[in-house]
Structure prediction request, 166 residues.
Amino acid sequence: MGINEAFIAELKQEGASTRKILERVPMDKPDWKPHEKSTKLGNLALHVAELPGWVPVSLDQDELDFATFEYKPVIPKNTEELLAVHDKNIEKALKCLENASDGKFMENWTMRMGEKVYFTMPKASVVRSFSYNHLYHHRAQLGVYLRLLDIPLPGLYGPTADEQNM
Prediction:
């Protein structure tokens, strides 16, 4: 089994779980946030939908330089558009992973801001931390937002208080 196969299996499972959460985001409340220091709901949901797209950034490039990086978000107007962003990024990530050799995962990747280097580590570690773990962190955060809005949470790893019959 290649390294990519484990990442592919995980992304397929977690991508389906992420989609369940995104399906419930009330896109009519994009500016809602639980605290003045919190990210707006619409921004957080978009970030969660975009994070799988960081897999190709991690594997197909050798660095990310925020000094030259141009971010042009597509702002979804409704749930269908939000899910389309997610689905497109999952598809691109899976295609990238399918084409990645074990050697590619061992190459170094760097995050920087011009001359300031934040870190350099193997691409396998970057995919794990920068993309996957980062996604799980913000997906959980999104779950808290939904709970505070009294939106039933789907089961991801087992039943929730809202869905006992998974």
Summary: The first strand starts at residue 63 and ends at 65. The longest helix spans residues 123-148.
